[in-house]
């Protein structure tokens, strides 16, 4: 939706950059609005924390929150958003199941002049999305690929060439094709891996290297595990796979199960991941999964709550730091991006425990 109040974004951004957040941003008791928050699934820890954190942060600002999980079902999410509009929500924060499937409820929101913030996943194919809060998604993929190279010994942690020569056999996995992030992660990773594939130090023996061939519907670990099993059965009867690019911890666990069933272990191929989910961090400590990408969802929730506050007050959020990269097919959505952090056995304690994300007890 083209809100006149956001039409002069560039001017507003300049003003925000000069003046910082306005004093009126402080919550006033009793002026709370109903905010509709929809998340994709409770099957993954990160979305549970995202939802809880946004709810807490908005409530501490005096707002009311309707928090819903769609359990990866598109019609459920459409209905949840329509219900929130009917209940009188003044703002919608949406982490979509399928980023292109919400154009209808977004039209309804626009007609009711309800602004929309896309949370973590871009909402595609609609003009009716005002802002976007996420992480540097391309960089997530770069970090995944760099850790794969480091694990294989082709690269040192300081980015200099590593001791190993290769060639190494790797396989590639991507996330759900209907999630805009999946291509960002994959393209980021391939930007790092391509030179090694070109010079033969890395080989994808299955031949499955195109994004469409390696996606995993709904990021489902079992689906990925089945694909890994098929590849092991057809391509690796006489050879070993040395590394697997995995875009998400749930997928990594599925891949590791397939590897175990295929006779791998106690030494495992280098398997990457994302989200620093508890099971995967334990797996990293146990020497099975090699790495993950930590995204501090507490920070994303905090930033989103503060963006929401500005939007509810008819202001352009001052945090926006990317006005170019997130074209949703209809418009470029102004975004706020946070930095991800690559985590493996060498730094998990510093990054995850010392920051208070996990306690030592949880990781035991
Ligand atoms: C998120 C990732 C997450 C994946 C699966 C993506 O949209 O950015 O953090 O691993 O969805 O839930």
TrEMBL record:
Record has Signal as a keyword: yes
This protein's record includes keyword Signal: yes
Pfam family, one: Peripla_BP_4
Main subcellular location: other
Compartment(s) where it occurs, according to its Swiss-Prot or TrEMBL record: Cell envelope
Annotated signal peptide: 1-23
Name used for this protein in its record: Multiple monosaccharide ABC transporter substrate-binding protein
Organism from which the protein derives: Lentzea sokolovensis
Protein encoded by which gene: chvE
């Amino acid at each position: 939706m083209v809100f006149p109040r956001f039409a002069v974004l560039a001017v507003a951004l300049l003003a925000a950059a000069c003046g910082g957040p306005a004093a009126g941003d402080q919550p006033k008791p009793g002026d709370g609005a109903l905010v509709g928050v929809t998340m994709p699934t409770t099957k993954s820890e990160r979305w549970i924390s995202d939802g809880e954190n946004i709810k807490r942060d908005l409530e501490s600002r005096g707002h009311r929150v309707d928090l819903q999980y769609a359990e990866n079902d598109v019609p459920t999410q459409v209905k949840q958003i329509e219900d929130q509009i009917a209940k009188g929500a003044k703002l919608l924060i949406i982490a979509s199941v399928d980023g292109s499937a919400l154009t209808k409820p977004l039209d309804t929101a626009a007609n009711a002049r309800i602004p929309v913030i896309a949370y973590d996943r871009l909402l595609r194919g609609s003009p009716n999305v005002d802002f976007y809060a996420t992480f540097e998604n391309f960089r997530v993929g770069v970090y995944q690929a760099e850790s794969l190279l480091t694990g294989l010994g082709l690269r040192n942690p300081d980015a200099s060439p590593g001791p190993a020569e290769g060639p190494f056999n790797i396989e590639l996995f991507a996330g759900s094709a209907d999630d805009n992030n999946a291509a960002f992660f994959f393209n980021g990773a391939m930007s790092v891996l391509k030179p090694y594939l070109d010079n033969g130090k890395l080989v994808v023996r299955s031949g499955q290297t195109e994004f469409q061939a390696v996606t995993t519907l709904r990021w489902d670990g079992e689906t990925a595990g089945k694909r890994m099993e098929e590849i092991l059965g057809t391509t690796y009867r006489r050879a070993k796979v040395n590394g697997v690019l995995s875009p998400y911890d749930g997928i990594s666990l599925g891949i590791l199960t397939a590897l175990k069933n295929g006779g791998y272990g106690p030494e495992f191929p280098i398997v990457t991941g994302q989200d620093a989910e508890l099971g995967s961090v334990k797996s990293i400590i146990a020497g099975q999964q090699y790495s993950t990408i930590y995204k501090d969802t507490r920070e994303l929730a905090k930033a989103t709550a503060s963006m929401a506050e500005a939007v509810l007050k008819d202001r352009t959020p001052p945090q926006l730091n990317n006005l170019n990269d997130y074209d949703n097919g209809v418009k470029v959505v102004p975004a706020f991006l946070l930095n991800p952090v690559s985590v493996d056995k060498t730094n998990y304690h510093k990054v995850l425990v010392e920051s208070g994300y996990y306690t030592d007890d949880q990781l035991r």
